[in-house]
Amino acid sequence: MAALVPSHCFGSSIVTGLVMSALLVSPARAQAPMPPVTVANPVSQQITQWDEFSGRFEAIESVNVRARVSGFIEKVHFKDGQMVKAGDLLFTIDKRPFQIAVESAQAEIAQRKADVALQISEVERARPLLRSRTLTERDFETRDANLAIARARLSAAEATLRAAQLDLDWADVTAPISGRISDRRVDVGALVTGGAAGATVLTAIVSLDPIYFEFDGSEADYLRYVRLARLGTRPSSREKRNPVRIKLADQEAWSIKGQMDFVDNRLDPRSGTIRARAIVDNPDFMLTPGLFGRLQLFGGKFDALLVPDKAIVSDQTKKVVFIVDENDVVGAKPVTLGPLQEGGLRVIKSGLSADDRVVINGIANPAVRPGAKVKTEFDPGESAELN
């Protein structure tokens, strides 16, 4: 039969065990190693500021091709959507009525020339008669006037021929500009109306190379650019073609290069924006009017402090940077962020000084929080990478 152990013996054993555990655990906690972090000073560096805007590509030239003379479409000489050059034949309007008009004008000219020749001979025969007084001066003046009238009628006939020839030439509809043509708006056999008012639109052409990128800038941007120009730190885009770079909706890199071309002369009072545009080379015709893109405009150069973007921590609505003081205690500084630079570097507009020791690595450790004491390792190489 097993011996019974008094209950107070169990209590004594438990207490003794807890005391021993406390003695063993307390030194371990007291000797817990401080979390290691890598720190580096922010780098003071002159950077180029690029301001971002949204906009769309627009054609430099855009033309609705209209008929200049009325008639029936006889031929279509292009394929819908193809590239055309200025002067390329697009449509042929039935030329027969215009050819008849030209021939009629030529016949009229021949008749008027014969009339001029007759009136010249009449005047020449009248000169000796006038000297011998066989012919009155009034009759001579009549013959001379008839010659002037004949010459005027010849000039009118020649003008009629030129007009008829122009209509004949306009029966061949050619491309006024180089670019990409739209689809045909009329087919062979269709009757089109020519002239200035109500002329039939046959198709449309837009130029592609070079191409505009149009965007709107805010009033604040406009004022800042004006002040920078007056200080001489950034030239006005009205006076110098400041560089731009553009990326499309499916691009990550700002691969399209261009330059400013125009800034409007007034702000829109309803939107508080000003219209501007850049010009971009488009030799492969990839860019087309209406295409959306993001543009970065050169905004000047200035001195700034930079830290790796991974060193930025979100604290509710604020952005903070962990720093370590001279006692290796972590602190947090609220900062105002600037644009992200190439290489993952973030511009700090305010909140840091060049002497701050910024925590670069080790932030992911939960023990690295404001007020915690850490083991720091200053890495000058990290600062060198920032350069």
Question: Which structural traits does this protein have?
Answer:
disordered N terminus, six-stranded antiparallel β-barrel, 4 domains, 387 residues, four-stranded antiparallel beta sheet, Elongation Factor Tu (Ef-tu), domain 3, elongated, OB fold (Dihydrolipoamide Acetyltransferase, E2P), conserved putative lor/sdh protein from methanococcus maripaludis s2 fold, 5 helices, alpha+beta
What is the strand and helix layout of this fold?
Layout lengths: L6 H24 L5 E5 L2 E16 L3 E5 L4 E6 L6 E2 L4 E5 L2 H36 L5 H34 L1 E3 L4 E3 L9 E2 L8 E6 L4 E8 H13 L11 E6 L7 E13 L4 E8 L11 E17 L3 E4 L2 E7 L5 E5 L1 E6 L3 E6 L7 E4 L13 E4 L1 H7 L1
Parallel strand pairs: 1-22
Antiparallel strand pairs: 1-21, 2-11, 2-15, 3-10, 4-6, 4-9, 5-8, 6-7, 8-10, 11-14, 12-13, 12-15, 13-14, 15-20, 16-17, 17-18, 19-20
CATH level-4 homologous superfamily of the largest domain: Efflux pump adaptor protein, beta barrel domain
Structural class, by secondary structure, is alpha+beta
Sketch the major β-sheet.
6 strands, antiparallel, barrel
Number of helices: 5
Strand fraction: 35-45%
Q: What is the CATH first-level class name of the largest domain?
A: Mainly Beta
In CATH, the topology of the largest domain is named Elongation Factor Tu (Ef-tu), domain 3
Provide the residue-averaged pLDDT: 86
Oligomer: single chain
CATH architecture of the largest domain: Beta Barrel
The topology string of helices and strands comes to HEEEEEEHHEEEEEHEEEEEEEEEEEH
What is the straight-line distance between the termini?
83 Å
Q: Output the radius of gyration.
A: 44 Å
Number of strands: 22
Q: What is the approximate shape? A: elongated
Number of domains: 4
- Describe the strand arrangement of the main beta sheet, using strand numbers: 2-11-14-13-12-15
Low-confidence stretches: 1-28
How much helix is in the residues? Answer: 25-40%
